[in-house]
Design goal:
The protein has 10 helices and no strands. It is mostly helical.
Length: about 220
């Protein structure tokens, strides 16, 4: 079935087939579409042979929603998703389309705030945006988690080393040396004072009459 869908979409590209008016009545969202692949998908939906094949119809609508989102028609993509949800159809592809379309719409609104309106998020808009950003961190890809873990370990290693101990040792040695030199310098001063004191005592003990006695 997928091979037939691709072959018909290629045929639509080559011949420039447009959407039939009867098909536009059933799918008014297709009005104004010019993408050959989208036109081919809609024509397959409106084909009488495929109207009873619910599985094929759901797949074709999923392809249309994906193509709308890739082309930047995010609101149209969400409308197709809403139609499929009404059919009680769920798939990972639809979830991805919903997520990417919602992110694109939010991103455009954020750029409009910054560039055109020159304002920031207020309390009403910031709170859900913060919750959204936090939830993305929890479900980020495994590769991103491992890369962030490696970065954390690399940044933690320098904090474990303490090079200050090596710089403190030479300071202590430099401070101890001047004390020893000062103590040695004081000793010669004390030795010079002692002989001066002894000579003064001998001079005071002599008498001027000793010379007369010798005569």
């Amino acid at each position: 079935m997928l091979a037939s869908c691709l072959s018909q979409s290629i045929f639509a590209k080559d011949d420039g087939v447009s959407i039939k008016k009867s098909c536009l009545k059933d799918y008014p969202l297709a009005v104004g579409d010019t993408d050959p692949e989208i036109i081919g998908f809609y024509n397959q939906l409106c084909d009488k042979k495929n109207k009873k094949d619910e599985t094929l119809k759901n797949q074709l609508l999923t392809n249309i929603a994906t193509k709308y989102q890739n082309n930047g028609y995010n609101l149209k993509a969400l409308q197709v998703v809403d139609e499929l949800r009404g059919r009680k159809f769920q798939s990972p592809e639809l979830t991805d389309v919903t997520f990417l379309a919602g992110v694109a719409i939010s991103y455009n609104a954020l750029n409009n705030m910054r560039s055109n309106e020159n304002r920031t998020l207020d309390e009403t808009t910031y709170a859900p945006a913060k919750v959204f950003a936090d939830n993305i961190r929890y479900i980020q890809p495994v590769s991103e988690k491992t890369n962030s873990a490696v970065k954390d370990t690399q940044t933690d290693k320098p904090a474990a080393y303490k090079p200050r101990q090596t710089t403190q040792k030479p300071k202590k040695q430099a401070n101890s040396k001047p004390k020893q030199t000062q103590a040695k310098a004081k000793k010669p001063v004390e030795t010079t004072k002692k002989p001066v004191a002894t000579t003064k005592k001998q001079a005071s003990g002599t008498s001027p009459f000793d010379t007369l006695k010798n005569k």
